[in-house]
Amino acid sequence: MMTRSKELSLEQQAVMDALQGVIDPEIGRSVVDVGLIYDIHPGEGRMLDITMTTTTRGCPATQFLMDAVRQRALGLVEYDGVEVRLTYEPPWSPEMMAE
């Protein structure tokens, strides 16, 4: 799981800041604060790869969250495209949430 700290590159921090605006409709907090964003890194060319999870498999908001993450990240002018990958490894747990 990614954390909001000085360990993040400026590029990763900019993406995390943008993703603060994506709110999980069931929890009412951002996907960043809930701990759903696992990895952010440049892909091939001017692509951005984001790996995320949901709180449960089969979450009814999965597609909504993935689309919202993609759209927010596309708003960053450095990228021509965003690939959002879904994973359940490691499984999400409430301990991943920011205080």
Provide structural commentary.
It is built from 3 helices and 3 strands; from the N terminus they run H-H-E-E-H-E. The chain is an alpha+beta fold. Strand 1 and strand 2 form a beta hairpin. The relative contact order is 0.22.
What's the arrangement of secondary structure elements?
Blueprint: H1 10-19, H2 31-34, E1 37-42, E2 47-52, H3 62-74, E3 81-86
Parallel strand pairs: 2-3
Antiparallel strand pairs: 1-2
Provide a brief overview of the structure.
The chain is an alpha+beta fold. The chain has 3 helices and 3 strands; from the N terminus they run ααββαβ.
Features of this protein?
about 100 residues; alpha+beta; 3-stranded mixed beta sheet; 3 helices; about 25% helix; 3 strands; single chain
Tell me the β content: 15-25%
Helix/strand/pairing category: alpha+beta
The total of beta strands comes to 3
Binned, the helix content reads 25-40%
In whole angstroms, the N-to-C terminal distance is 15 Å
